[in-house]
Q: What sequence folds into this?
């Protein structure tokens, strides 16, 4: 069958290309029609630009073409003979797919939308949302502890809401962008701080009234900001490294970590169990479904995270903006129904 996909054909270049998709299914494969796919700005910018160290487990040479778009929503068109939970017509959250009109994926990468009020636009964000859910969960945040989120892109804004839902007081959002700080306050942050030109750890201590925050979620993707997050922790604090800074940095681990008993926790989405959740570390499916329950229960807001919806035909211009490193909207979707079949 004819398919259309957004492909990074060379550094800083995205194109909408046509290809053939073999739609025969075996095992637990599922054929879906993509409804919306979301841009994960940090990851997709690095892939688009050909940044190094894109593989979390090994150093590999960056090659093109590349296909991204791991967070999307869709409708089941057909299921393979071993599928057990999905049927034709089901609306699903799609994990580890691509920006494509049609996708053929294992059933284990597709999770049913559980509630009618969750739109397929919102559902396209849930795979992205599972990353900060993992990051917050791994800190073992307890009600009444203080929390700080550094970096207010879409992952950071999810993290602000998850910290509040988990009972953190206060929740402190940190970002140099005034609009993002204002949005974080509207989503439940108690304070929003511009780190530019100030002693951030001292400011954090003044807001908490003690030696710093108990928990820090670092989504900045910058070595300097990560160090400031570590310095902003109270004794025995915990920090999860959620942002992907793929460039080496120098850290004074004795003073930043060892001397104060700080816990540094990796929160790459690959570092989670595949089959069974355990306290502090859930499977992707369980985290995605937890986000659905939080949204259904009114504990988090999704609509303010969606800022722009484009036709896939606009992909070259959209990704040119992303590659330019200028200010990029927080939640950007492609509406695949805008394509002419």
A:
């Amino acid at each position: 069958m004819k398919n259309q996909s957004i492909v990074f054909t060379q550094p800083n270049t995205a194109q909408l290309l046509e290809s053939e998709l073999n739609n025969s299914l075996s095992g637990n494969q599922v054929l879906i029609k993509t409804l919306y796919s979301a841009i994960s700005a940090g990851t997709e910018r690095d892939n688009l630009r050909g940044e190094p160290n894109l593989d979390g487990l090994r150093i590999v040479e960056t090659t093109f073409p590349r296909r991204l778009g791991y967070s999307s929503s869709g409708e089941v068109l057909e299921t393979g003979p071993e599928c057990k939970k999905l049927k034709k017509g089901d609306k699903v959250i799609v994990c580890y797919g691509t920006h494509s009109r049609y996708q053929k994926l294992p059933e284990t990468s597709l999770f049913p939308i559980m509630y009618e009020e969750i739109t397929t636009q919102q559902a396209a964000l849930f795979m992205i949302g599972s990353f900060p859910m993992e990051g917050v969960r791994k800190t073992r945040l307890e009600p009444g502890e203080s929390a700080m989120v550094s970096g207010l892109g879409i992952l950071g804004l999810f993290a602000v809401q998850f910290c509040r839902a988990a009972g953190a007081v206060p929740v402190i959002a940190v970002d140099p962008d005034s609009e993002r700080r204002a949005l974080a306050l509207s989503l439940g942050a108690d304070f929003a701080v511009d780190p530019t030109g100030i002693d951030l750890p001292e400011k954090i201590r003044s807001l908490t009234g003690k030696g710093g925050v108990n928990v820090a979620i670092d989504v900045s993707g910058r070595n300097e900001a990560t160090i400031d997050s570590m310095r902003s922790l109270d004794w025995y604090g915990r920090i999860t490294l959620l942002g992907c800074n793929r460039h080496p940095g120098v850290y004074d681990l004795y003073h930043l970590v060892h001397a104060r008993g700080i816990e540094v926790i990796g929160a790459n989405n690959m570092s989670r169990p595949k089959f069974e959740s355990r306290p502090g570390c859930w499977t992707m499916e369980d985290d995605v479904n937890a986000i659905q329950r939080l949204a259904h229960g009114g504990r988090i807001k999704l609509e303010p995270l969606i800022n722009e919806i484009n036709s896939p035909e606009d992909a070259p211009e959209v990704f040119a903006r992303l590659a330019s490193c200028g200010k990029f909207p927080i939640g950007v979707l492609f509406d695949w129904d805008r394509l002419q079949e």
Q: What stands out?
A: Residues 185 and 192 are 7 Å apart (CA to CA).
